[in-house]
Amino acid sequence: MTNYKLIVTICNHGYADDIMSVAKKAGARGGTVMRGRSTAIHEETKFFGITIHPEKDLILIVTTKDGCVPIMDAINKAHGVGKEAHALSFSIPIDDAIGFNF
Prior knowledge:
- The chain has 102 residues and is of the alpha+beta class.
- The chain has one domain: Alpha-Beta Plaits, CATH 3.30.70.
- It has helices at residues 16-25, 65-79, and strands at residues 4-12, 32-37, 45-47, 50-52, 55-64, 88-93.
- The strands form two sheets. Strands 2-5-1-6 form a four-stranded antiparallel beta sheet, covered by helices on one side. Strands 3-4 form a two-stranded antiparallel ribbon.
- A hairpin with a 2-residue loop joins strand 3 and strand 4 (50-52).
- Helix 1 packs across helix 2.
């Protein structure tokens, strides 16, 4: 068992760079950004009769257990629910990790 956690943040598309800047100021060393789309029914919009699902960004940050809460708190304060980014974060414990140098 390692002392690492994976922070997963889902936000509206276009806010990943701003969120990563906040996360780095709070102690994150880096992250991975992936694009996705929402499947929530209430977020669907119609454009010329075509249903469009809003795009989302998925941000993955590996950090130490001690660094997890400060990073998530910083993201929430700057870009959490109720803000334009509408960022949602959760963490998952990492059982094994190779190649990380904290």
